[in-house]
Structures are given as C-alpha cells and as structure tokens.
Write a structure and sequence with these properties.
six-stranded parallel beta sheet, binds NADP nicotinamide-adenine-dinucleotide phosphate, Quinone Oxidoreductase, Chain A, domain 1, about 300 residues, alpha/beta, about 25% strand, Rossmann fold
C-alpha cells in the first residue's frame, strides 16, 4: 500500500512516499481501507521531534491518528463492526496511508450523507472537546472562555458547550469572528489586553476556560479570569503545571470518551446543525504541504487528506 512516512525528525521536507505491507489487525482491531485522513497539529509536533519524550516513535513512521474508510478485515473477537462497514474514528497505526488499523470499539458508523472528508475531520476534535468539557464540569448557564475557538478542537468545543446551555467566549483572529458568531460564540481578539476585552463581554465573570492554543498568556489570563486554576484545562501547554493548571492529553483514567463524543457529534450532524468546515483537502501525495499549512496555524476548521 502507498503511505507517507519519515525516518528522521525535522521539517515537513522529511516526509516521503513509501510502499508498505498491508497491516494485519490484531485482536479487537480492524483494517480500514482509508478514504480520508485528518491532519492535526499533533502530526507535525511528532514529526519535528518536539514530542519525542511523550510520543517516541519507531522509524519509518507513518503520521496520522484519525480516518474515515471501509472496514476491510477484522481481527479476533471483533463484534462491533463488519467487513464492508463505512466507519470513522481514531486509528492505531498511521492514517496517512491507503490502509490503517483501528480499535473496533472506538469506531462509529459513517452516516451515508456525510462525506469521507467530513467524517475524517471529526474523531480527534470531537473526542478532545468532549473530554475537556467533562473535565471542566460545565453546567447550564455558565460562561466558558475558549482560546483558539476557530480551530478543529475549538469548533467542536463551542458547539458541544452551546448544546449544554453554556455561553462561550472564543478567541480568534478578526478573520474568524463572523465564523465564531455563526457557531454561537462571542468572538474576542487574542493578544495584549485580552483579559480586559473578556471582562467587557462578561462583566459577571467567566466560570471555566479551555486553552487550545498553548501560546502567549492564554493560561495566565484564564487563571486570572476564572479566579484560580481549578476550572482551567489546557490541551496545548505542557508546562501549564507552573500555574497549577491541568494539561489533558487523553490519558486520564476512565472509559474511552471517543464513542460518546462521536455519537454526540453525529447527533448534531443528523439534526443538520453540525459545523466542522473543511479548511483544505490535499491529496495524500501533498501531505507535506498539508502539514506546512497546519503548522502556520490559522485554520477555520480542519485540514484533511483525500486518499482514495
Ligand atoms: N492534548 C490533547 O489531547 C490535544 C488534542 C487535540 C489537539 N491538541 C492541541 O490543541 C491545539 C489546537 O488543536 P486544533 O486541532 O484545534 O488546532 P488548529 O485546528 O490548527 O487550530 C488552531 C487555532 O488556533 C488559532 N490561533 C493561532 N494562534 C493563536 C493565538 N495566539 N491565540 C488564539 N488563537 C490562536 C487559529 O485561529 P486564528 O486564525 O483565528 O488565529 C486556529 O484556528 C494544538 O496545539 C494541538 O496540538 C491537543
């Protein structure tokens, strides 16, 4: 099968096309014929070597952690899906490839009216947003500040929070303000003076904050506005412990949140109100360009690869 891989850490230039043997599903796993793969900041962070401590990899390494496609082979003990099912979900092996492996218990059925690209964009963003809202224990009527609200995770977090009756103030560049209003959030520009601008929008205060940026003073401003670190979670600042703030990376104990998160997202889709725009679709052969765009970091929604 064709895939994209790298065998040394570095810039996007290290990515190259490769022919690999078909992966064989182990117990509980399935092999998916990939139709589309999501591109995430995690992919370029791993490729650069910046996460070698947290995510050590074996070379050659195929990037990509989520996909949509058709189940092609099932391992022992799989009961959740069958060969021929159209599915979406997180992957166990790299998804920048014509075939990938996934845990059957973390897949959901792709609705027929959803495109492969839309389906591939959902898993990581939905699971992360769902997880953080649970950690923050948001209640109806509260106000949530989201840093980086127009990106993949932010887009899903705004919509899940709004469904829970939570008011959302989202940071974004001016270019994304109309988009955030369309999602139901109140936009605010990031940078110098952010705390004051948020206070002007929420004179009664902010109850909780999600940092999906990891840069600048997002965590410090969140602690200041919520009155302490307890209801602030970052998914992007590994050093947030210096403020007493939790860094969430999905390894928290407890049951997998993937299926509940994807079920909730598909519920919004079936109601015709899910928004997760596709910022750009690249062919597999242009995966390096896709990662370069992801690294520039000013997306509205998600970048995906079209694979078959
Ligand atoms: N720990 C976990 O479990 C986990 C899971 C998923 C993602 N992540 C991390 O979370 C972060 C967000 O992921 P993502 O997939 O949502 O990224 P993304 O889709 O690339 O979106 C990033 C967003 O951040 C905005 N932005 C850029 N600079 C900003 C700044 N200084 N202040 C505020 N917003 C800014 C951009 O919007 P504008 O154009 O409006 O600037 C863009 O929409 C990444 O660092 C990723 O690695 C962690």
């Amino acid at each position: 099968m064709k895939a994209i891989a790298f065998d040394a850490y570095g810039s996007a230039d290290v990515l190259y096309p490769v022919e690999l043997d078909l992966p064989v599903p182990g117990p509980g796993q399935v092999r998916i014929a990939v139709r589309s793969a999501g591109v995430n900041p995690l992919d370029h962070k791993i490729r650069s070597g910046g996460m070698a401590g947290l995510f050590p990899v074996d070379f050659p390494y195929v990037p990509g952690r989520e996909a949509s496609g058709v189940v092609e082979a099932v391992g022992d003990g799989v009961t959740e899906v069958r060969t021929g099912d159209a599915v979406l979900g997180p992957t166990v092996t790299g998804s920048y490839a014509e075939r990938t492996l996934a845990d059957a218990g973390r897949l959901v059925a792709k609705p027929g009216s959803m495109t492969w690209e839309e389906a591939a964009a959902l898993p990581l963003a939905a699971e992360t947003a769902w997880r953080v809202l649970e950690l923050l224990q948001l209640r109806e009527g509260e106000t949530l500040l989201i840093h980086g609200a127009a990106g993949g995770v932010g887009t899903m977090a705004v919509q899940f929070a709004r469904r829970r009756g939570v008011r959302v103030i989202g940071t974004a560049s001016e270019a994304n303000h109309a988009y955030l209003r369309g999602l139901g959030a109140d936009p605010v520009t990031y940078g110098e003076g952010l705390a004051g601008r948020v206070r002007a929008l929420a004179p009664d205060g902010v109850h909780a904050a999600l940092d999906a940026v990891g840069k600048g003073d997002a965590v410090a401003v969140s602690v200041e506005l919520t009155g302490g670190p307890d209801r602030v979670v970052t998914i992007a600042d590994e050093d947030a412990g210096r403020h007493g703030v939790r860094f969430s990376n999905g390894t928290e104990p407890g049951a997998s949140r993937t299926v509940p998160a994807l079920t909730a997202a598909l519920g919004l889709f079936e109601s015709g109100i899910l928004q997760l725009p596709i910022h750009h679709v690249y062919p597999l052969s242009e995966a390096a360009e896709a990662q370069r765009e992801s690294e520039r970091g000013h997306l509205t929604g998600k970048i995906v690869l079209a694979i078959a």
